[in-house]
C-alpha cells in the first residue's frame, strides 16, 4: 500500500509529495508482499503443471482400460453366441451324452471296486 502525504505547494520538487520515512516503510512492505505473492504464484504454477501431467497419465490409462474392456466384451459376446447356439441344439442329443458319461463313470467305479 502506498500512502500519499501532501505537504502543500511549497514541497521540494524531488520529493513528489511523499514523506521519506512513510514511503520507505510502505515500499519495503510492498516489496515483501510482492515477493511472497511471487513465491505463492510459482508454487501454484508448479502444482498445476503436476496436476496436468497426472491428468494426462490417468486419461491414457483410462483409454487403455477402455480398449481392454472392449476386447473382453467382444470375446464375451462371441462366447455367449456360442452358448446360445449350443442351447438351441437338440436336447435329446445332450441328454444322450449325459447318460453315456454317467454310465462310463459308473463302470469305472464298479471296475475299481471289483479290483480291490
UniProtKB/TrEMBL annotation:
Family per similarity comment: Belongs to the BET1 family.
Membrane topology: Single-pass type IV membrane protein; Single-pass membrane protein
Known role: Required for vesicular transport from the ER to the Golgi complex. Functions as a SNARE involved in the docking process of ER-derived vesicles with the cis-Golgi membrane.
Keyword field: Coiled coil, Endoplasmic reticulum, ER-Golgi transport, Golgi apparatus, Membrane, Phosphoprotein, Protein transport, Transmembrane, Transmembrane helix, Transport
PANTHER family referenced in this protein's UniProt entry, alphabetically: GOLGI SNARE BET1-RELATED (PTHR12791)
Places the protein is found: Endomembrane system; Endoplasmic reticulum membrane; Golgi apparatus, cis-Golgi network membrane
Subunit annotation: Interacts with SNARE complex members GOSR2, SEC22B and STX5. Interacts with LMAN1/ERGIC53. Interacts with STX17.
TM annotation in the entry: 94-113
One record GO biological process: vesicle-mediated transport
Top-level division of the source organism's lineage: Eukaryota
GO cellular component term, pick one: endoplasmic reticulum membrane
Entry-linked CDD domains: SNARE_Bet1 (cd15853)
Matching SUPFAM superfamilies: SNARE fusion complex
Species of provenance: Bubo bubo
InterPro entries registered for this protein in UniProt: BET1_SNARE, T_SNARE_dom
Protein name from the UniProt record: BET1 homolog
Record domain T-SNARE coiled-coil homology: where: 24-86
Main location: membrane
Amino acid at each position: 500500500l502506498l500512502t500519499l502525504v501532501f505537504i502543500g505547494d511549497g514541497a521540494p520538487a524531488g520529493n513528489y509529495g511523499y514523506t521519506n520515512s512513510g514511503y520507505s516503510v510502505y515500499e519495503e512492505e510492498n516489496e515483501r508482499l510482492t515477493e511472497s505473492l511471487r513465491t505463492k504464484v510459482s508454487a501454484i504454477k508448479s502444482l498445476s503443471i503436476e496436476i496436468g501431467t497426472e491428468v494426462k497419465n490417468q486419461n491414457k490409462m483410462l483409454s487403455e482400460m477402455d480398449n481392454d474392456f472392449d476386447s473382453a466384451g467382444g470375446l464375451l459376446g462371441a462366447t455367449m453366441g456360442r452358448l446360445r447356439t449350443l442351447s438351441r441344439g437338440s436336447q435329446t442329443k445332450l441328454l444322450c451324452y449325459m447318460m453315456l458319461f454317467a454310465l462310463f463313470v459308473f463302470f469305472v467305479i464298479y471296475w475299481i471296486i471289483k479290483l480291490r
